[in-house]
Amino acid sequence: MDQRKTVVVTGFEPFGEHTVNASWVAVQELEKLGLGDDINLHVAEVPVEYQAVQNLLPSLWKDHLPQLVVHVGVSGMATTVTLEQCGHNQGYMRMDNCMFCPVSRCCVDGGPDCIHSVIDMDMVCKRVNSSGLGVSVSVSKDAGRYLCDYTYYMSLFVGEGRSAFVHVPPLDKPYSAEDLARALRAIIREMLEHMETQQTNTHCLHNP
């Protein structure tokens, strides 16, 4: 019987000025690199469409039964690899690639305003930064109220907090796709280790 852990990692398709989306390029590089023999890695490209995310996210969790789902997105403002601590339910007003925006401006009607990952991103950040990786990692609590934040919230909601979101800078500003893949590999392995020690704490840490 396969005792390996299962991890799903997603990147996004191109949108706006990001005609090549660094997140999906980095995830494809990560797929080549792998997460190690003890981990089954599945990757998927996520459309920059609210309705597609609503359909795709539950099926990723159901089909793969992963221990962890990590979503990777690009941020034109980022200069570091940024770990997002939480996803937000409301405030979605930007049109997606289909020129659609949720009428309710939210992800899940009646859902909590904010859901935190069960992973302590500050701790993961410190450990990766002290590992001599050569890629700078930081932590954020605002994923931007667009498809990144929307996807993260949906995944946290469906996966009961066992999800993570990583923002990467555009390619070569300053990191190559290979640099980003190495950083993602280190981050994800650190997250899994952290989750193993935190198994008693599997509930959502969102505000009541």
UniProtKB/TrEMBL annotation:
<feature type="active site">
    <location>
        <position position="148"/>
    </location>
</feature>
<keyword id="KW-0645">Protease</keyword>
<dbReference type="InterPro" id="IPR033694">
    <property type="entry name" value="PGPEP1_Cys_AS"/>
</dbReference>
<dbReference type="GO" id="GO:0006508">
    <property type="term" value="P:proteolysis"/>
</dbReference>
<keyword id="KW-0378">Hydrolase</keyword>
<comment type="similarity">
    <text>Belongs to the peptidase C15 family.</text>
</comment>
<keyword id="KW-0963">Cytoplasm</keyword>
<dbReference type="GO" id="GO:0005829">
    <property type="term" value="C:cytosol"/>
</dbReference>
<protein>
    <recommendedName>
        <fullName>Pyroglutamyl-peptidase I</fullName>
        <ecNumber>3.4.19.3</ecNumber>
    </recommendedName>
</protein>
<dbReference type="InterPro" id="IPR036440">
    <property type="entry name" value="Peptidase_C15-like_sf"/>
</dbReference>
<keyword id="KW-0788">Thiol protease</keyword>
<comment type="function">
    <text>Removes 5-oxoproline from various penultimate amino acid residues except L-proline.</text>
</comment>
<dbReference type="Pfam" id="PF01470">
    <property type="entry name" value="Peptidase_C15"/>
</dbReference>
<comment type="subunit">
    <text>Monomer.</text>
</comment>
<dbReference type="GO" id="GO:0016920">
    <property type="term" value="F:pyroglutamyl-peptidase activity"/>
</dbReference>
<dbReference type="InterPro" id="IPR000816">
    <property type="entry name" value="Peptidase_C15"/>
</dbReference>
<dbReference type="InterPro" id="IPR016125">
    <property type="entry name" value="Peptidase_C15-like"/>
</dbReference>
